[in-house]
């Protein structure tokens, strides 16, 4: 996995038998198992302050995040900054994750240093949170469910925009967006589940078409902020259009 990749993390549950060897990705998020620090102690750390400031900027100004927050609110899952986001130190290979046990989005304060990166991580993880809200996702026992959400997150969050791929020295030809989505979904599964690459690839391939074409709540693949703004505007107008029918 490349440095700073956003993944969807694990959910806490009792482990026994075969599950003892699988921590469901929590090894990547060591602060999940630590006793909560007081606000005063946490506020002394520069990383934490910077993370909180960038998070606020994302939630206030980023159209991807704003659309997802509104969609979750309409689905009965209102997101609160202090309750549903947590800035923590993580393993060096990840930038964030969604902890379904606590309905919290983990933001890796030691790995997120730019606002554009924060925007992508928050969007990626909000897509997982949205899926968790609207569907009965079996994050632990059904790798196809995890694969589907990872496909949607890679497809709709901006992870695979042309500029991001160029920054990774990957220059796309026809169909490159789909290739990027598939590859990143597989990488994310392998980061948080102890499954073989073949099993991850099989799960992604089996659900790819249906999940790639599930564009909720955007209604389109937002390849840029302009696309996301249009999608947000259209989403806010859905109820008005229905009321006029």
UniProtKB/TrEMBL annotation:
<keyword id="KW-0482">Metalloprotease</keyword>
<dbReference type="GO" id="GO:0005739">
    <property type="term" value="C:mitochondrion"/>
</dbReference>
<dbReference type="GO" id="GO:0004222">
    <property type="term" value="F:metalloendopeptidase activity"/>
</dbReference>
<dbReference type="InterPro" id="IPR019165">
    <property type="entry name" value="Peptidase_M76_ATP23"/>
</dbReference>
<protein>
    <recommendedName>
        <fullName>Mitochondrial inner membrane protease ATP23</fullName>
        <ecNumber>3.4.24.-</ecNumber>
    </recommendedName>
</protein>
<keyword id="KW-0479">Metal-binding</keyword>
<keyword id="KW-0378">Hydrolase</keyword>
<dbReference type="GO" id="GO:0033615">
    <property type="term" value="P:mitochondrial proton-transporting ATP synthase complex assembly"/>
</dbReference>
<dbReference type="GO" id="GO:0034982">
    <property type="term" value="P:mitochondrial protein processing"/>
</dbReference>
<keyword id="KW-0645">Protease</keyword>
<comment type="similarity">
    <text>Belongs to the peptidase M76 family.</text>
</comment>
<dbReference type="Pfam" id="PF09768">
    <property type="entry name" value="Peptidase_M76"/>
</dbReference>
<feature type="region of interest" description="Disordered">
    <location>
        <begin position="1"/>
        <end position="26"/>
    </location>
</feature>
<dbReference type="GO" id="GO:0046872">
    <property type="term" value="F:metal ion binding"/>
</dbReference>
């Amino acid at each position: 996995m490349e440095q700073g990749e956003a993944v969807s993390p694990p959910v806490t549950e009792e482990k026994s038998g075969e599950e003892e060897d699988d921590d469901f990705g929590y090894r990547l998020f060591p602060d999940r198992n630590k006793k909560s620090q007081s606000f005063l102690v946490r506020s002394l750390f520069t990383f934490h302050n910077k993370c909180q400031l960038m998070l606020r900027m994302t939630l206030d100004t980023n159209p991807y995040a704003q659309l997802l927050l509104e969609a979750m609110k309409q689905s009965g899952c209102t997101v609160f900054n202090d309750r549903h986001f947590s800035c923590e130190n993580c393993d060096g290979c990840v930038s964030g994750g969604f902890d379904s046990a606590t309905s919290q989005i983990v933001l890796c304060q030691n790995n997120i240093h730019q606002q554009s990166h924060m925007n992508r991580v928050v969007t990626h993880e909000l897509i997982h949170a949205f899926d968790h809200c609207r569907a009965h996702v079996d994050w632990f026992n059904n790798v196809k469910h995890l694969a589907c959400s990872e496909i949607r997150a890679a497809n709709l969050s901006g992870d695979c925009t042309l500029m991001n791929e160029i920054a990774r020295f990957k220059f796309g030809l026809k169909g490159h967006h789909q290739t990027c989505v598939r590859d990143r979904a597989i990488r994310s599964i392998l980061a948080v589940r102890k499954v073989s690459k073949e099993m991850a690839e099989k799960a992604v391939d089996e659900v790819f078409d249906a999940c790639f074409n599930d564009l909720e709540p955007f209604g389109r693949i937002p390849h840029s902020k302009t696309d996301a703004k249009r999608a947000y505007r259209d989403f806010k107008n859905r109820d008005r259009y229905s009321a006029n029918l």
